């Protein structure tokens, strides 16, 4: 029985509320953010450490050509971001975010561990006018690797020419000239170890689908609707992502160069297991967050979902095989010809996106109110522009890594040199430095009513990523006699790209949780990652346009490779500036459809 106040007895003070002074916080945010920050930090430690190695691993260990290597890389990163579409839905309906995160962490760590078993390095060879020759790899007096065609007792150095022909040099003099198209490079690699590598990538793709959208959803659950801390909370969370990637992109490439590829991948696996342990053994700190939905049969259904997820691994393996054996488009067919020749994975990705986005909008039109539909429409427009941004930004792991390996002087003030894989740490380092500043900046602007709207931030990001590439194109004019630019031009690109990234990615995650209809927020988080998935595949397409001929993983003419990269980077920059300006013009109607969401 509850006592009620009367005229003769004074009302008791209301003590049913929670005293804000007693509520535990972490830098002014819910204390659970600290554990999720650390969990995501270690998960990204594993992922970005592995990613820093992947393209170089494919070109230098398995000795795939540029087109094959960037194709596999693009397909892998596309699947990594496609699977959250399903993983978010399964967590919403059956597993709950917490169980999904733990299962994904286990599968990903196993995938990284399997990558440690790469077998022997592939053996390069060359086919000249239909005849096969061995190719030897030796270091010259400057310590650089040089490729030689072994012709009986002679070793002829391979030198590519601007017109696509190849010279075979004997003591610096051209002994034989091979016409364009008559020189084909290849490598003998173990089919078994290629299969092992593809299975490992498939496991990482599946595991990420359960982990990635649901850890972000759990962060969103920490804040009530309208809580102004949400954006800054996601920015802090995003800083954890880059703190993990910062250290992994330094340590994993260093281990790979110093002790072998297996050591780099093993460190990534250890980081992933730490991430799992933080969620599994949380001491009750995450009770009430990411729990399964209250419906019958949930506990038994989870094991069925886990089993089906494992069965998807061989399916993904077959997609990779199809990707590797896809035919190149006919010469001169252009971009449309390239799209028409896409392998099955590409067709599935584009089909999912082109059908999924309108389907969700139709559902929201009938299932939601007018306001909810307009908010979902605004989210979908921004998601489409999100594809453009990540298509350009994600050149980091493919064409920009190869640019660093081939056309960048990696010496730091002449004191020491870093590896091509380690150049990716620039992005993470700048994110860690810029994230607190930008979080404070957004907060200060918001208090004054001057914070840019989400569409404006997206437009700034698109123009920013273009500016980064144009800076590198400018730096290419000052390349040295080895056709290499100074490392600081590449660092400048990553600085600008990091600023652009902070305008779109943490804001985008927050935007999805605020604009989505509540009962499908996990699915919408999946659509957000689906857009990144399509972008990752497009990024592979762009990187393939920048492909150059290699022998045993090394280009034969650095002037040709520099020109190829500059041409592609210039073209995509112009496109990004035009689309960024278009989005800035669309920001006014989009802001109206968002109905006050900031």
Account of the protein in words:
This protein has 598 residues and is an alpha+beta fold. It is globular. β1 (25-26) and β2 (29-30) form a beta hairpin. The two termini are 45 Å apart. α10 runs antiparallel to α16, α11 (370-393) packs parallel to α16 (521-545) and α15 (487-515) packs antiparallel against α16. Helices cover 65% and strands 10% of the residues. The chain has 2 domains: 26-122 and 189-593, MFS general substrate transporter like domains (Growth Hormone, Chain: A, Up-down Bundle), CATH 1.20.1250; 123-187, no CATH class.
Features of the shown structure:
10% strand, Growth Hormone, Chain: A, 65% helix, two-stranded antiparallel sheet, disordered N terminus, single chain, 598 residues, alpha+beta, 2 domains, globular
Q: Which helices and strands occur, and which strands form pairs?
A:
Blueprint (H helix, E strand, L loop, with lengths): L24 E2 L2 E2 L1 H30 L4 H17 L1 H12 L1 H18 L8 E6 L2 E9 L5 E7 L2 E7 L5 E5 L2 E6 L4 E6 L2 H31 L7 H31 L1 H20 L17 H27 L9 H7 L3 H24 L2 H24 L5 H9 E2 L1 E2 L3 E2 L7 H23 L6 H23 L8 E2 H29 L5 H25 L4 E2 L2 E2 L2 H36 L5
Parallel strand pairs: 10-13
Antiparallel strand pairs: 1-2, 3-4, 3-9, 4-5, 5-6, 6-7, 7-8, 11-12, 14-15
Helix pairs in contact: 1-2, 1-6, 1-7, 2-5, 2-8, 2-16, 3-4, 3-5, 3-16, 4-5, 4-7, 5-8, 5-16, 6-7, 6-13, 6-15, 10-11, 10-16, 11-14, 11-15, 11-16, 11-17, 12-17, 13-15, 14-15, 14-17, 15-16
């Amino acid at each position: 029985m509850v006592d009620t106040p009367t005229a003769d007895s004074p009302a008791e003070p209301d003590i049913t509320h929670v005293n804000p002074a007693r509520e535990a916080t972490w830098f002014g945010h819910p204390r659970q953010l600290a554990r999720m920050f650390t969990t995501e930090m270690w998960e990204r430690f594993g992922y970005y450490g592995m990613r820093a190695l992947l393209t170089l691993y494919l070109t230098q260990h398995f000795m795939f050509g540029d087109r094959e290597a960037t194709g596999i890389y693009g397909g892998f990163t596309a699947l990594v971001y496609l699977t959250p579409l399903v993983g978010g839905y399964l967590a919403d309906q059956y597993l709950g975010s917490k169980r999904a995160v733990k299962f994904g962490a286990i599968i990903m760590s196993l995938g990284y561990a399997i990558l440690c078993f790469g077998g022997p390095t592939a053996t390069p060879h060359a086919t000249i006018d239909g005849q096969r020759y061995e190719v030897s790899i030796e270091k010259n007096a400057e310590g650089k690797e040089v490729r030689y065609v072994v012709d009986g007792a002679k070793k002829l150095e391979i030198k590519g020419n601007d017109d696509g022909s190849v010279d075979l040099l004997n003591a610096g003099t051209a002994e034989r000239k091979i016409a364009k198209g008559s020189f084909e490079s290849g490598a003998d690699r173990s089919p078994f170890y290629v299969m092992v590598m593809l299975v490992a990538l498939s496991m990482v793709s599946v595991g990420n689908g359960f982990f990635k959208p649901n850890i972000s959803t759990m962060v969103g659950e920490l804040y009530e609707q309208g809580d102004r801390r949400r954006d800054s909370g996601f920015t802090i969370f995003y800083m954890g992502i880059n703190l993990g990637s910062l250290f992994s992109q330094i340590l994993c490439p260093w281990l790979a160069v110093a002790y072998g590829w297996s050591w780099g991948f093993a460190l990534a696996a250890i980081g992933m297991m730490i991430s799992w342990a933080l969620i599994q053994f949380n001491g009750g700190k995450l009770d009430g967050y990411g729990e399964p939905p209250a419906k019958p049969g949930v506990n038994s259904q989870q094991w069925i979902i886990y089993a089906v997820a494992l069965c998807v691994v061989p399916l993904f393996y077959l997609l990779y095989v199809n990707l590797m054996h896809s035919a190149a488009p006919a010469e001169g067919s252009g971009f449309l010809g390239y799209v028409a020749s896409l392998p099955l994975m590409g067709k599935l990705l584009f089909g999912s996106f082109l059908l999924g986005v309108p389907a969700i909008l139709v559902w929201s039109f009938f299932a939601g109110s007018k306001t909810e539909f307009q908010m979902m429409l605004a989210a979908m427009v921004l998601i489409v522009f999100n594809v453009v941004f990540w298509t350009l930004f994600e050149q980091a792991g493919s064409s920009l890594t190869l640019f660093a390996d081939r056309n960048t002087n990696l010496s730091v003030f002449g004191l020491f040199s870093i590896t091509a894989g380690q150049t990716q740490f620039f992005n993470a380092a700048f994110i860690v430095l810029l994230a607190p500043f930008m979080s404070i900046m957004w907060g200060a602007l918001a208090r004054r009513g001057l914070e840019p709207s989400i569409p404006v931030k997206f437009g700034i990001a698109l123009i920013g990523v273009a500016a980064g590439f144009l800076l590198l194109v400018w730096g290419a004019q000052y390349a040295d006699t080895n056709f290499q630019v100074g490392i600081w031009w590449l660092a400048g690109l990553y600085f600008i790209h990091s600023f652009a990234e902070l305008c779109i990615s943490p804001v985008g995650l927050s935007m999805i949780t605020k604009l989505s209809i509540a009962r499908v927020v996990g699915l919408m988080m999946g659509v957000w990652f689906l857009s990144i998935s399509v972008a990752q595949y497009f990024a592979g397409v762009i990187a393939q346009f920048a492909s150059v001929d290699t022998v045993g993983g090394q280009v034969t003419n650095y002037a040709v490779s520099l020109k190829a990269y500059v041409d592609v980077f210039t073209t995509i920059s112009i496109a990004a500036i035009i689309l960024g300006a278009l989005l800035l013009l669309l920001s006014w109607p989009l802001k109206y459809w968002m109905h006050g969401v900031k």
